[in-house]
Input
Amino acid sequence: MRLSVTEKSDKKIVFKIDEIDHAFANALRRVVLNGIPTMAIEDVYFETNTSGFFDEVLAHRLGLIPLTYDKNIYNLKEECKCDGKGCIQCEVVLGVEKEGPCIVKASDLKSTDETVKPSEPDIPVVELLEGQKLKLEATAKLGIGKEHSKWQASVASYKESSRNSFVFTIESVSGMSATEVLEKGLETLEKKSEEFIEEFKKVVK
Output
């Protein structure tokens, strides 16, 4: 197997892999799409919303804002020591309190953890007119794209340039860089392979 990088930036990486088959190529594509944990808003509690948008619409918009986070602190809720009850190691609280006239942006989300913040601060959420108010509290947690697209780590595709040679394009749509997405994807594939080997050994004993 040979790998060569042809283009690399913070949000995008293009590389070529030789001597692999379609099965491996598709497995890699799928894992960087929906198998990597990312941070996203899950629950939103509205105290005041007199904007022109329903609560459900704003909650949906907030859930799609990509968030950065410290990979050494946060766990998937189902794998956390709190048994899924919710704690500072598996969820974080963010809040917004604004009054119009203004455009509420992702940067207006104030987090209880400075490492958890929107990776794209200029994303507009809603326009508040004179006298309109928005006050809410949101809880963010880790998840994977297989559960919901708001946790999708990247947009990924590949094409076969020649027999058993594939050119991949990965663009991060999460709080991670494209390189981090690829590294996490490979780690996930390795972990799944190791788990399969362990289970196989138990069965054939």
Summary: The helical segments are 22-34, 55-63, 178-204. The mean pLDDT is 92.
